[in-house]
Design a protein that fits this description.
The chain contains 5 helices and no strands. The protein has 145 residues and is mainly α. α2 runs parallel beside α3. The longest helix is centred in the C-terminal third of the chain and has 44 residues.
Protein backbone atom coordinates (compact mmCIF):
# COMPACT_ATOMS: atom_id res chain seq x y z
CA UNK A 1 0.00 0.00 0.00
CA UNK A 2 1.14 3.49 -0.76
CA UNK A 3 0.71 6.75 1.12
CA UNK A 4 -2.36 7.71 -0.90
CA UNK A 5 -4.09 4.43 -0.11
CA UNK A 6 -3.36 4.81 3.59
CA UNK A 7 -4.68 8.37 3.73
CA UNK A 8 -7.89 7.31 2.00
CA UNK A 9 -8.56 4.55 4.55
CA UNK A 10 -10.78 5.17 7.56
CA UNK A 11 -9.39 5.07 11.08
CA UNK A 12 -11.02 1.70 11.81
CA UNK A 13 -9.46 0.17 8.68
CA UNK A 14 -6.10 1.66 9.61
CA UNK A 15 -6.37 0.16 13.09
CA UNK A 16 -7.08 -3.26 11.61
CA UNK A 17 -4.07 -2.86 9.34
CA UNK A 18 -1.85 -1.69 12.21
CA UNK A 19 -2.84 -4.70 14.36
CA UNK A 20 -1.24 -6.96 11.73
CA UNK A 21 2.16 -5.58 12.73
CA UNK A 22 3.39 -6.70 16.16
CA UNK A 23 5.85 -3.80 16.39
CA UNK A 24 3.02 -1.27 16.68
CA UNK A 25 1.63 -0.79 20.20
CA UNK A 26 -1.25 1.34 21.44
CA UNK A 27 -3.18 1.14 18.19
CA UNK A 28 -6.58 1.86 19.71
CA UNK A 29 -5.42 5.18 21.18
CA UNK A 30 -3.76 6.47 18.00
CA UNK A 31 -5.14 9.12 15.71
CA UNK A 32 -5.26 8.70 11.93
CA UNK A 33 -1.98 10.54 11.28
CA UNK A 34 -0.21 8.48 13.96
CA UNK A 35 -1.58 5.24 12.53
CA UNK A 36 -0.41 6.07 9.01
CA UNK A 37 3.07 6.95 10.27
CA UNK A 38 3.30 3.81 12.44
CA UNK A 39 2.24 1.53 9.57
CA UNK A 40 4.74 3.16 7.23
CA UNK A 41 7.51 2.83 9.82
CA UNK A 42 6.64 -0.83 10.40
CA UNK A 43 6.96 -1.45 6.66
CA UNK A 44 10.14 0.58 6.41
CA UNK A 45 8.58 3.09 4.02
CA UNK A 46 9.43 6.77 4.45
CA UNK A 47 6.25 8.82 4.59
CA UNK A 48 5.64 12.51 5.08
CA UNK A 49 2.30 13.37 6.58
CA UNK A 50 0.90 16.79 5.90
CA UNK A 51 -1.08 18.06 8.84
CA UNK A 52 -4.23 20.02 8.30
CA UNK A 53 -3.84 23.74 8.54
CA UNK A 54 -5.24 25.16 11.72
CA UNK A 55 -7.30 28.27 11.52
CA UNK A 56 -5.92 31.32 13.19
CA UNK A 57 -8.31 32.97 15.55
CA UNK A 58 -8.88 36.60 14.84
CA UNK A 59 -8.16 39.08 17.56
CA UNK A 60 -11.50 40.18 18.93
CA UNK A 61 -12.44 43.19 20.97
CA UNK A 62 -15.79 44.01 22.50
CA UNK A 63 -16.21 47.27 20.59
CA UNK A 64 -15.65 45.55 17.23
CA UNK A 65 -18.17 42.84 18.09
CA UNK A 66 -20.79 45.38 19.08
CA UNK A 67 -20.28 47.38 15.88
CA UNK A 68 -20.70 44.20 13.85
CA UNK A 69 -23.89 43.33 15.77
CA UNK A 70 -25.31 46.81 15.07
CA UNK A 71 -24.67 46.55 11.34
CA UNK A 72 -26.16 43.06 11.20
CA UNK A 73 -29.27 44.26 13.03
CA UNK A 74 -29.73 46.97 10.41
CA UNK A 75 -29.34 44.39 7.64
CA UNK A 76 -31.82 42.14 9.42
CA UNK A 77 -34.40 44.95 9.57
CA UNK A 78 -33.93 45.56 5.85
CA UNK A 79 -34.29 41.82 5.21
CA UNK A 80 -37.62 41.81 7.02
CA UNK A 81 -38.87 44.62 4.81
CA UNK A 82 -37.88 42.68 1.69
CA UNK A 83 -39.57 39.54 3.10
CA UNK A 84 -36.38 37.48 2.73
CA UNK A 85 -36.90 34.85 5.42
CA UNK A 86 -33.69 32.89 4.72
CA UNK A 87 -31.54 35.99 4.91
CA UNK A 88 -33.27 37.14 8.10
CA UNK A 89 -32.69 33.77 9.76
CA UNK A 90 -29.04 33.74 8.70
CA UNK A 91 -28.51 37.20 10.14
CA UNK A 92 -30.36 36.33 13.34
CA UNK A 93 -28.09 33.31 13.88
CA UNK A 94 -24.97 35.36 13.15
CA UNK A 95 -26.08 38.02 15.65
CA UNK A 96 -26.67 35.31 18.24
CA UNK A 97 -23.13 33.94 17.76
CA UNK A 98 -21.60 37.41 18.02
CA UNK A 99 -23.56 38.17 21.18
CA UNK A 100 -22.26 34.95 22.74
CA UNK A 101 -18.71 35.91 21.81
CA UNK A 102 -19.24 39.35 23.28
CA UNK A 103 -20.50 37.91 26.56
CA UNK A 104 -17.61 35.45 26.70
CA UNK A 105 -15.14 38.23 26.01
CA UNK A 106 -16.69 40.37 28.76
CA UNK A 107 -16.64 37.48 31.21
CA UNK A 108 -12.96 36.76 30.53
CA UNK A 109 -12.12 40.43 30.90
CA UNK A 110 -13.98 40.58 34.23
CA UNK A 111 -12.07 37.52 35.48
CA UNK A 112 -8.75 39.12 34.57
CA UNK A 113 -9.72 42.32 36.39
CA UNK A 114 -10.87 40.38 39.45
CA UNK A 115 -7.61 38.42 39.52
CA UNK A 116 -5.62 41.66 39.24
CA UNK A 117 -7.61 43.19 42.11
CA UNK A 118 -7.03 40.10 44.22
CA UNK A 119 -3.30 40.24 43.59
CA UNK A 120 -3.38 44.00 44.25
CA UNK A 121 -5.15 43.50 47.60
CA UNK A 122 -2.58 40.93 48.69
CA UNK A 123 0.27 43.31 47.88
CA UNK A 124 -1.52 46.41 49.19
CA UNK A 125 -1.58 45.53 52.94
CA UNK A 126 2.19 45.03 52.94
CA UNK A 127 2.73 48.33 51.14
CA UNK A 128 0.08 50.22 53.13
CA UNK A 129 1.48 49.32 56.54
CA UNK A 130 3.83 52.05 57.69
CA UNK A 131 7.37 50.94 58.28
CA UNK A 132 8.50 51.26 61.88
CA UNK A 133 10.73 54.27 62.45
CA UNK A 134 14.29 53.36 63.28
CA UNK A 135 15.18 54.08 66.87
CA UNK A 136 18.52 55.78 66.45
CA UNK A 137 17.78 58.68 68.72
CA UNK A 138 18.03 57.96 72.42
CA UNK A 139 15.44 59.07 74.94
CA UNK A 140 17.91 61.57 76.53
CA UNK A 141 18.70 63.40 73.28
CA UNK A 142 16.81 66.62 72.55
CA UNK A 143 14.18 66.50 69.84
CA UNK A 144 14.86 68.53 66.72
CA UNK A 145 11.82 70.17 65.23
Amino acid sequence: MEEKELTKMTVTKLREEAKKYTSIEGVSAMKKEDLIKAIADARGEPIEIKKKKSRKKKEVDAAGLKKKIKTLRKEKAEGRKSKSRKETNRLRKKIKVLKRQSRKFGKEKAEVIAAAKKVGKEAAPAAAAPAPAPETASADAPKVE
